[in-house]
Amino acid sequence: MYSLLILVPFFIVLVLNLPFKVMTRKVAFWACALFSALQVSAVLALQGVFWGNHSEIFAGFLRFNFWIDNLTSIMLICGGLVVFIVALVEKYLSRDEEQTFRFLNVLLLVLAGMNGTVLVRDLFSLYVYLEIAAVSSFILIGLNKEKDACEAAFKYIILSVVATVLMLSAIAIFLMIAGDTSFAGVSQALSASPDKLLIAMAVGIFLCAAFIKSGVMPFHGWLPDAYSASPAPVSVLLAGIVTKTVGVYLLIRLVYTVVGFSPAIVQILLWVGTVSVVLGALAALDQKDLKRMLAYSSISQIGYIVLGLATGTALGLAGALFHIFNHTIFKSLLFVNSAAVESATGTRQLDKLSGLAQKMPLTGTTSVLASLSCAGIPPLSGFWSKLIIIVALWKAGLFGCAFVAAFASVLTLAYFLTMQRMAFFGKLRSDLEQVKEVGFGLALPMIILALVTVAAGLCFPWILHRFTLPLGMMAGG
Amino acid sequence: MDLNLALLLALLAAALWTVMTRSLLRSAIFLALTSIILTVLMFRLNSPLAAVFELSVCAGLISVLFVSTISLAEPQSQKDVIQHMKERMARFWFLPVLLIVLAVVLCLKTVRPAVHLPTPENAQDVRIVLWQLRPVDILGQIIILLTGAFGVVIFFKEKVKK
Amino acid sequence: MNMDVMQLFWITGLFVLLLGVVGAYCVLMTRNLVRALIGLEILVKAVTLLLVVAGYVSGHEALAQSLVITLIVIEVVVMTVAVGVVFGIRGNTGSLDTRHIRNLKG
């Protein structure tokens, strides 16, 4: 059943490219939106009952080994949701129908790649589907062939290939030690093997690769450029789900399922997480471009997720996973807002914007909600996930990190308030008189995302028992 | 054993030549040469199928790709390039020499700890492994080839209006 | 495994590392975008060699070969898209100089 999540987008793309030009252009958007919405509802509704953990026979002769556990379900839900939003944004913003058609095709391939990444149970297959998602993202970034976009795409390609090479070297060493590349096989062999030095080297290399792909400090060089220079819907896609799937998911799988926690790994994760959280927030404070500020904010939030993972406890992991979900929601919302601002006013520079809240009330309101959620203000959802992470750090005895995380929350509030004040509040600038609120196409994603973040915050006690705590105790690979 | 070492040294030398050579065209040709040496090495390491793939794809397809890119692109001012290369060669002449000397020395002298390896299974055919044990990878390859096709269509079409 | 095979592994591992250094040097120190791609190719060849040797040494050549085949297919697609992006840059700036793509600050 799970292979459908990969095969159906693939077949949709094939069908869309049959030579029925007029019909396929019309159908493309609906096919894409429908499939992603279906993905979200299927995973939500059929938890555990329909999906079970098993390998399955497809077409009688090909045996695909896809499993699903709680981490996978969260990533599938986030993926489906963001792709739905991105399809809506692209349909609204684009003027060229041919380009939209190509965009939607490649978007479906990104979704197929991401679904594959989270469904497989083998390190090398993980690499294969990771590359599918990555290559499709490269294509999407450079889709309209603008100067800045191509430049950002090139830098991203170089760093992505370097990270891939590192990851494969680690997989080669695991192959030698374990004779197998599946999660279970490698995990068993690593605990049983006496060659500690070689294993330590391989794990270190793999961690570097995961850090480069996640965009945490000090490997974050490509992230601000890629997020700010790519076209608006692509930024939503990258920030909302792609970086998290190819980077953070890789990290969590490696540390939690394959290698296990050791003191050295915990130390490395703590350092990387703390540095990202603080430096990301500090860097976001003095950005003048809206999207770059959001990019540095993403680096900071991913630092929080790494800190949650570093605690090694079930509570910390639950906090990290819930924060992944929340970050998807509010960061996508913020990027959709920036797309709205850019399409309405033509600029992203904060010092050229002022007083937009009067002309664009919906954008302003949702932006405030997303910013407060990101900064961790109750009762919005971001508050709960940050609280869980800080409590987990405290309980694990890492008091310094807990203080740093709480302090960085204050910094987050600071830069978001700055952004709000500069862009939305205050007096309306004279050259922004003709600015109009965005149409339904962009309003719908904003409303959906804002509702989710408010609902997740308000219904938190229910969510806590139903979803979050079970997340912490994953079934494992 | 000695032949393997010689092949490895030749591989490193070819790669160095690829990096340090002046013209881009020669660089691409030396990349193909590096592929060929790698292919021979892989044959010696009991991996014939992978070697054939490497030869046909890397020494063939990628070289065609690079040579066509280089010939289609605007040539930089030749003097500028040669000047830059000469400067770099003058500053970094020790680097290739150092690398090769280091390689030979370390080969002969280092302590190599033994690694405990799992007992190998009966030799299986690559085709069986690929098709029956790893069909997920095959599906992945098909999907990425489709993605590549899209990439080619999107990037390699000349813009009609500019 | 006997000492001879492990010796081969460590020697080859050393060469893989040196190849990696050569590739990284090429990517960092070049002024031409296509040469940066050639450097990436060299890095990928180093990893291919490492995979093959790991397979040979541990006796699992069949598995290593299937991994290498998949890897080669994927890297061809990545290189093709990278060349496409380079064409895009050339279309916009008219040259393949890396100095022209320092527009975005890190």
Structural topology:
The complex is a heterotrimer of chains A (477), B (162) and C (106).
Chain A: H1 3-16, H2 21-45, E1 56-58, E2 62-64, H3 70-93, H4 97-119, H5 123-141, H6 147-178, H7 183-192, H8 196-214, H9 222-229, H10 232-259, H11 263-285, H12 290-310, H13 314-345, H14 361-375, H15 381-395, H16 399-423, H17 440-458, H18 460-472
Antiparallel strand pairs in A: 1-2
Chain B: H1 2-20, H2 24-44, H3 48-72, H4 78-91, H5 94-109, H6 126-133, H7 135-155
Helix pairs in contact in B: 1-2, 1-5, 2-3, 6-7
Chain C: H1 3-28, H2 33-58, H3 61-93
Key features of this structure:
heterotrimer; A: 477 residues; mainly alpha; two-stranded antiparallel sheet; 18 helices; C: 106 residues; Helix Hairpins; 80% helix; 0% strand; elongated
Notes on the structure:
The complex is a heterotrimer of chains A (477), B (162) and C (106). Chain A is an all-alpha fold and 477 residues long. Chain A has a domain at 283-477. Helices cover 77% and strands 1% of the residues of chain A. Chain A has a two-stranded antiparallel sheet. The two termini of chain A are 18 Å apart. The model of chain A has no long low-confidence stretch (mean pLDDT 84). With 162 residues, chain B is an all-alpha fold. Chain B has two domains: 1-74 and 86-109, no CATH class; 123-162. Helices cover 77% and strands 0% of the residues of chain B. Chain B is built from seven helices and no strands. The radius of gyration of chain B is 21 Å and the shape is flat. The N and C termini of chain B lie far apart (59 Å). The mean pLDDT of chain B is 78. With 106 residues, chain C is mainly alpha-helical. Chain C has a single domain (3-101), classed as Orthogonal Bundle (Helix Hairpins), CATH 1.10.287.3510. In chain C, helix 1 runs antiparallel to helix 2 and helix 2 packs antiparallel against helix 3. Chain C is elongated and about 55 Å long. The model of chain C has no long low-confidence stretch (mean pLDDT 85). The chains are: A mainly alpha (477), B mainly alpha (162), C mainly alpha (106).
